[in-house]
Amino acid sequence: MNMQILVVNPNTTASMTETIGAAARAVAGAWTKVVAVTSSMGPASIEGYYDEALAVPGLLMEIAAGERAGAQAAIIACFDDTGLDAARAMANIPIIGICEAALSMASFIAQRFTVVTTTERSLVPVEGLVQRYGMAGRARVRAADIPVLALEDPASGAIGKLRDEIARAVEEDRAEAIVLGCAGMADLAHRLQAEFGLPVIDGVGAALKQAEALIALGLSTSKRGAYASPLAKPYRGMLKSFSPGAVAAE
């Protein structure tokens, strides 16, 4: 069964999209085509509520374009699950956020696990997602004090900080597994798993395999209730082109 899965980086840093796309392709089945795209507008990285809000319009445009081009599922490659609910309401294909996917995957293999994210400002948003997804009794969230873009700079010391925080999670949290709390960490999972001797989950890979499963099972987002298609109404000003139906038709 041939599949086409869209992976959207909702920030505007193309080099990060390359890392994300490579991580998705590394676990994709031979029958799966991964299309990785970078948002054409918005912040260079998503760190906090303000960045997240302004990343959503560009994200929705990429998902709508991907669906028109034949994508059978889409992955939002930001651990904040940026714009996830809006995308599910807009699209007619399954939409998966990498935080939800990673937490679900971790729950299959560990009773207690720790999410290691980037900076302190991401801590509360990710803790909110842990609560939303029903994992508050099993998951702790830690911040490694790493700006997102520092993950691409070998001289930044970011990887060392990440390792140190994982070591503390194993020692202090008694973590049985680690969830990497940023899409920019997607290429580190196997290396860190071998180093620490416990499961390390990358949300991009977890989301890709779950997208394949949904396509194979013929399942998509319910259009009853919360994710029903948006009601027709005019949008004004800079958001005029986002009025319901306009994005999908472009």
Automatic annotation (TrEMBL):
Q: Please give the name of this protein.
A: Hydantoin racemase
Q: Which GO molecular function annotation, any one, does this entry have?
A: amino-acid racemase activity
Top enzyme class, one word, equals isomerase
Q: Name one Pfam family in it.
A: Asp_Glu_race
Q: Which organism is it from?
A: Mesorhizobium kowhaii
Q: Which family does it belong to?
A: Belongs to the HyuE racemase family.
Highest taxon in the source lineage: Bacteria
Which chemical reaction does it catalyze? D-5-isobutylhydantoin = L-5-isobutylhydantoin; D-5-benzylhydantoin = L-5-benzylhydantoin; a D-5-monosubstituted hydantoin = a L-5-monosubstituted hydantoin
Q: What is its EC number?
A: 5.1.99.5
